Amino acid sequence: MERVITILCMALVTYLPRALPLMILKGSMKNEILVKWLSFIPSAILSSLLISSILIKDSEVFLAGNIQIIAIIPTILVALRTKSLILTVLAGVFSYFILSRLLFFL
């Protein structure tokens, strides 16, 4: 029972910093420039996390033999063409799977 309470407390501590600002600021954002600027933050953060996870390995830039760089090309094309998260994820997983199998047999 103690572990369940610990996990619930950890979930609460993780969730509150994310939820409280949204609940407090809900409906009070009047400045359109600020709202527009804030709308770009999630995509900027996601982009930086994605690029760093693809290009950096063991604290060094990893370009030679990096399957992820090649697999991201069809993934981006599917994302731009379909605007569907499910199809984009499937294209990325499928591209990476095929490329890793091809390079395994070379």
**Tally the helices: what do you get?**
5
Tell me the β content.
Answer: under 5%
Number of domains: 2
Mean model confidence by pLDDT: 82
| Overall morphology | extended
Strand order of the largest sheet: 1-2
Proportion of helical residues:
over 70%
Measured on Cα atoms, how large is the radius of gyration? 20 Å
H/E topology pattern: HHHEEHH
Protein structure class: mainly alpha
Question: Runs with pLDDT <50, length 5+?
Answer: none
Count of beta strands: 2
* Sheet with the most strands, sense and barrel status: 2 strands, antiparallel
- Cα distance spanning the termini: 52 Å
Could you list some keywords that capture this structure?
5 helices, mainly alpha, 2 strands, 106 residues, two-stranded antiparallel sheet
Describe the structure.
It is a single chain. This protein folds into 2 domains: 1-31, no CATH class; 40-105, no CATH class. It has 5 helices and 2 strands. The chain has helices spanning 2-25, 32-39, 41-55, 67-82, 85-105; strands at residues 56-57, 60-61. The model has no long low-confidence stretch (mean pLDDT 82).
